[in-house]
Amino acid sequence: MIEVKHLVKRYGNHVAVNDLSFTVDTGKVVGFLGPNGAGKSTTMNMITGYIAQTEGTILVDGIDTLEEPEKAKERIGYLPEIPPLYPDLRVREYLQFIAELRKVKKSDRDMVIYEIMKKTKILDVSERLIRHLSKGYKQRVGLAATMIGEPDILILDEPTVGLDPGQIIEIRELIRELSKDHTVLLSSHIMQEISAVCDEIIIINEGKVIACDTPENLTKRMMQNNGVFLLIRGSKEEIEEGLRAIPEVTDIVYDEERQEDAVGVTVYANMSADIREDIFYAMAEKKCPVIEMRQLDTSLEDAFLALTKGGSRQFAENENYKKKGEEEE
Fold first, then answer.
1. Exposure string for 183-222, b = 16+ CB within 10 A, e = fewer
2. Separation of alpha carbons 39 and 324, rounded Å
3. What pLDDT digit, counting tens, does each position of 39-70 carry?
């Protein structure tokens, strides 16, 4: 549904988006992630036609956004981070205005607006001034506006920013509902939200794609094998010797400071290996008591931080990550 090829956006000497390529398949909900300044909003603005790219091609349902911008925009509903609402209009008036802009038939407007307000649960505030609405209701009105004209694609830039937990849950449920009939490209910094609603994740950093996968595969592949955290009493030399004797161990990382008169250490092993029992016997043989042992879990937040901490250097490293994923598939 969306195909981005070698996209570049320059502002003078600053490169905001650097040779970016990815696809969003029809019917998918795709999370678009990256640290601040990574180029997410710039990319979304180029896909929607709000700004033009310096180089590259954007196809929306096979339509080139530069060659046929009006035709491409007909297929897109866009909710920017700050919805462009008119505070002095009532909700129904605002949606009627948007329907006119989207060239909805005059005879159909009332019914279209009613159905959209019903779906976004804003019928009860339809005659209220937008300025008097809560942040959550304003987001709902913004989402309603993106749906007018029956676009195939919804592009949502930080749709839950500034909302309280209850409002976040409401908007999240609404996005799930909308995903049944639309392809959705969603930008967010809330990892729980991405995990809950997205089928795939695209992570960019410094204008480049550094990962593209499902949330489950992303966290699985970014696990540094089997991580086990240990607190062990004994000398570092004895601990090192004992752990290195375990064949499956791939890496050992020590904490800088001792804890509880013990050495803090994280041990990594091959994915298929459970080394906890081997660690117990190895440390018993060295007479180094294990005070604490716990398996490490990798969350989506951990994977995101691991992928983005290297800046542009991570792009080259991630080529190996992508190749590994392709081999596994």
1. bbbbbbebbebbbebbebbbbbbbbbbbbbbebebbbebb
2. 26
3. 898 999 999 999 999 999 999 999 999 999 99
